[in-house]
Design a protein that fits this description.
Radius of gyration: 32 Å
Mean pLDDT: 83
Helix content: 25-40%
Shape: elongated
Low-confidence stretches: none
Number of helices: 7
Strand content: 5-15%
Strand order of the largest sheet: 1-2-3-4
Order of helices and strands: EEEHHEHEHEEHHH
Length: 279
């Protein structure tokens, strides 16, 4: 029976590097949901799970398969490999593009505060839309008795529909001689200032784009000006971003090829001597 490699990606935030041996070689990679807090009730079952470090040595892989089969309760190690293989936990190849750190850093680590700022601005605007005065309707009545006031409230609900009643406020005042004030409907002015965070958002976006391999903004957000961005400019931006992502693509291609999955990552535009970026 021939072993055929199968590739999967583990959730990075749940991975931990195990102890190293005397030769500084990692012996295990642990997988566990470390964000779950321990219960004070004592129900703290350890659900951690480890994987073997990557090795392309077939003898090493075979011994790992036998060890997992034996750990599962199997005793006869002379059985066919197909019987033992379902119990094999597999190996982990750790691809770290920031080797100066033990645990790889996200390219957005340096702009964490900018990401947080962008999120909080969005939350602020969302709260203003949901709980502010935006779209709130008020109804003022004058000189009505209790029964008439209830009838007005019922009629307003009927007009607006049940899904919009939460944005309505009814205010009753005393009698008045002004017929125009007996019944009045109005709408509160929105408090949202769209220009409040304009400069901040532009700075934050610029920092985030820089962390994303300096991706040009026009490749993410279309230009709605009268003439927009020319086709030649788009081509130059694609060439620029393709060059900016070359190292990551090359590293990933080499890693997958090394693991037995040769591939070619197709960039957003092919660059050769005839299409190199003009300076």
């Amino acid at each position: 029976m021939e072993l055929v490699p199968v590739l999967d990606i583990l959730e990075y935030t749940k991975m931990r590097i195990g102890k190293e041996d005397d030769n500084e070689v990692v012996t295990k990679y642990w997988f566990k949901d470390y964000e779950k807090t321990k219960s004070f009730l004592g129900n703290n079952k350890d659900k951690s799970y480890f994987y073997y470090p990557y090795s392309d040595n077939k003898n090493v892989i075979l011994e790992q398969i036998k060890a997992d089969y034996k750990l599962s309760g199997g005793k006869d190690l002379e059985v066919d490999l197909s019987v033992m293989l379902p119990y094999y936990r597999g190996q982990v190849y750790y691809m770290n593009l920031t080797p100066e750190f033990k645990y790889a850093l996200s390219p957005f680590d340096a702009v964490y505060n900018d990401l947080d700022t962008e999120s909080r601005i969005s939350m602020y605007i969302n709260r203003q839309v949901r709980t502010g005065f935006l779209g709130k309707t008020y109804v003022v009545t004058a000189g009505l008795d209790e029964e008439d006031e209830k009838q007005v409230e019922a009629d307003v609900k009927l007009w607006l529909g049940s899904e919009n009643v939460g944005g309505t406020y009814h205010f009753s005042i005393g009698a008045t001689d002004d017929i125009d004030k007996v019944f009045k409907v109005g709408q509160m002015k929105a408090e949202i200032d769209e220009k409040l965070f304009t400069e901040t958002k532009n700075t934050v976006k610029s920092n985030i784009y820089a962390a994303a391999n300096n991706i040009p903004e026009q490749l993410i957000k279309s230009d709605n000006t009268l003439f927009g961005t020319s086709a030649d400019t788009y081509v130059e931006m694609k060439k620029f971003y393709t060059e900016q992502t070359l190292d990551e693509r090359t590293e990933l291609e080499n890693t997958l090829t090394f693991l037995g999955f040769p591939c070619k990552i197709i960039p957003i535009i092919e660059i050769d001597e005839s299409t190199a970026i003009s300076i």
